[in-house]
Amino acid sequence: MIKKLLALSISLAFSAVPVVVQAGGDMAEGKVKAANCASCHGEDGNSMMGNFPKLAGQHASYLVKQLNAFKDNTRNAPMMAPLAMGLDDGDMEDLAAFYASQKTSSNQMPVIFSDDDDDDDEEAEGEAESSEDTEAEVKNLISLGGDLYRNGNLKSEVSACIACHGPKGAGNKPASFPAVRGQHADYLIKSLTDFKKGTRNESSDNMMHMIAKKMTDKEIQAVSYHISMMK
What we know:
This protein has helices at residues 2-14, 27-33, 38-41, 60-71, 81-85, 89-100, 124-151, 162-165, 185-197, 207-212, 217-228.
């Protein structure tokens, strides 16, 4: 009951966030312009590499906000900053409209790599046992991540993700809270770790930093695995 009240109170608090004006770009123009982004983010915004975020299905307003943050260096991203510098407001809105119109792809089950994965001398039976153990570990992490997402951690005062990102990870478009469902686990882990360390603080109130700094590395991994499997 207390967990539910905590999540509800956080949700009500964020409902007072000012409404962000939605982007109104041209999807067709955005598709053409997105060709320059395809090598990292995929033709339809579903990147094939876990360290590059999926943009497909993301709220247009959030994408515009992030591109502006890259452009004015309020979000530290050496790779994206020079690219964003070449975009005007219309370009950003067109790109955002295109990516927002695309469907987020599903992910395969996360895989935990060990230091022994490259050992050619490992016994086949040992590999089978290791595989079973690893699969069980992943499932346990996803379960832990699901609990953190829904309920947070009262003991360490970690807020429930559901309060801002919704029960299905769809985010909150008016408040410009991003959709997170189906995002790559590797990218989520990096993002939460960056928030935790304070190296990604584009939000004026540093809300994500305040949450992530209370999370253990295991909790970050667990909630990232859970979110990556959300559809």
